[in-house]
Design goal:
There is one protein chain. Helix content is about 40%, strand content about 10%. It is of the alpha/beta class. Helix 3 crosses helix 6, helix 5 (about 110-115) packs across helix 6 and helix 5 packs across helix 7 (about 145-160). The longest helix has 21 residues, at about 410-430. The two termini are about 40 Å apart. This is NADH-quinone oxidoreductase subunit F. Keywords: 4Fe-4S, Flavoprotein, FMN, Iron, Iron-sulfur, Metal-binding, NAD, Oxidoreductase, Quinone, Translocase. It catalyses: a quinone + NADH + 5 H(+)(in) = a quinol + NAD(+) + 4 H(+)(out).
Length: about 450
């Protein structure tokens, strides 16, 4: 699958006015280094932020632009920035870029880091100026080896050009940026688990409050933002709030553009920068090209393995948080997966739940014990050895591992696709339920109160 697949040529006309994230990309897929990046107006927004804007002005501009987190949660970025302490006596603060990107079927941040490393650095530089942070970390998924090489080279280029380090652009502001590679845990996508891992601790989520803005890396105020989120900052600062809001389609409550994609057995799997509010059908048919010959769309996930399954009739939903919520799930990362009609949903869910069970940090009981139970039940059903009541037990687990029932959002995300799969494809689960044979005890089952 190409990371730079941009769909039919007649549909893609990338420009700075319409594609703030991707217009600088090279057609050959090679990285855009400093000289070329600056020739394409790179660091112009940073120079504007340092010369013409106060820290509060930068925060307010991002807030007014309505930028929301692009990692999946969708929390307003300007609001998060506003949580950082105003006390000038706190002179140690950190900016942390979440580049762990271990959500299955998601590779958008990888493309940005490998091909536009200076866009991320510029976004972090402006953000650091706004937040008064003197040091930044890019917490990078360990398997992203090419991204690590490119980011480190770009950091050195920026240092040599006086865009990182001491007295940046003659402003008296210092900012050091460090690329840190992780050991490969899905739970590090949760910001406090990421902070623990950065500090050399076990990657368990922390209790909140206190939130990272008050007590983060090594006990100091810390702001954590996703790669794509930070890459939006230069365009907002450079072009203004009204321009940024104008990018989205009518009806969308989210502003700007979003990196969206489709994987699975589609004709043109890939990644595209599209305005919020585009319909999933347009993404699927016009950009991804629909299903390959011989395959039929059975269902799809809108944004990673932790989002619920939707049916073909849901393709007319608009791709923004509220638009996908109307059809019963979350937009997540915005990179969709098509499931074809040859796939057995029980087997697919068993595979997914195995992943989520393995990636649980094990801190809280519902997640630590509930996810392995779901795997055990699904394996039995997959092999035609399920017992009467197993589906009800699975649905009970979906409820008991839902939002607000566990220490972090890992388990709720893990069971959302399970609940939707049973909702839409229950006969496939029922087909794996065998009648109990006389004298043969059923497999051990969890006690699910009220199931």
């Amino acid at each position: 699958m190409s990371l730079t697949s941009f769909g039919p040529a007649n549909l893609i006309k990338r420009s700075a006015e319409t594609h703030p994230l991707t217009w600088r990309l090279r057609d050959d897929g090679e990285a855009v280094w400093l000289d070329e990046y600056q020739a394409k107006d790179g660091y112009t927004a940073a120079r504007k932020a340092f010369a013409d804007m106060s820290q509060d002005d930068i925060v307010q501009t991002v807030k007014d632009g309505g930028l929301k987190g692009r990692g999946g949660a969708g929390f307003p970025t300007g609001v998060k920035w506003g949580l950082m302490p105003k006390d000038e006596s706190i002179n140690i603060r950190y900016l942390l870029c979440n580049a762990d990107e271990m959500e299955p079927n998601t590779w958008k941040d990888r493309m940005l880091m490998e091909q536009l490393p200076h866009l991320l650095i510029e976004g972090m530089l402006i953000s650091a100026r706004a937040l008064k942070t003197y040091r930044g970390y890019i917490f990078l998924r360990g398997e992203y080896t090419t991204a690590a090489v490119h980011l480190r080279r770009a950091v050195e280029e920026a240092k040599a050009a006086g865009l990182l380090g001491k007295n940046i652009l003659g402003s008296g502001f210092d900012f050091e940026l460090i690329v840190h590679t992780g050991a490969g845990r899905y739970i590090c996508g949760e910001e406090t688990a990421l902070i623990n891992s950065l500090e050399g601790r076990r990657a368990n989520p922390r209790s909140k409050p206190p939130f990272p803005a008050a007590v983060g890396v090594w006990g100091k105020p810390t702001c954590v933002n996703n790669v794509e989120t930070l890459c939006n900052v230069p365009a907002i600062i450079g072009n203004g709030v009204d321009w940024y809001k104008s990018l989205a389609r009518e009806g969308s409550e989210d502003h700007g553009t979003k990196l969206m994609g489709f994987s699975g057995k589609v004709k043109n799997p890939g990644l595209w920068e599209l305005p919020f509010g585009v319909t999933a059908r347009e993404l699927f048919e016009d950009y991804a090209g629909g299903m390959r010959d011989g395959f039929k769309l059975k269902c799809w996930q809108p944004g990673g393995a932790g989002t619920g399954f939707l049916l073909p009739e849901h393709l007319d939903a608009q791709m923004y948080a509220g638009g996908i919520a109307k059809v019963g799930t979350r937009m997540g990362t915005g990179l969709a997966m098509a499931v074809d009609d040859s796939v057995n949903m029980v087997s697919l869910l068993r595979n997914m739940e195995q992943f989520f069970a393995r990636e649980s940090c094990g801190f809280c009981t519902p997640c630590r014990d509930g996810l392995p139970w779901s795997v055990k039940l699904l394996m039995a059903i997959e092999h035609g050895e399920g017992q009467p009541g197993d589906i009800e037990t699975l649905l009970g687990l979906v409820g008991f591992l839902g939002p607000g029932k566990t220490f972090c959002a890992h388990a709720p995300g893990a069971v959302e696709p399970l609940g939707s799969a049973i909702k839409y494809f229950r006969p496939e689960f029922e087909a794996g339920i065998a009648q109990a044979k006389p004298g043969v005890p059923p497999l051990a089952r969890p006690i699910v109160i009220g199931a």
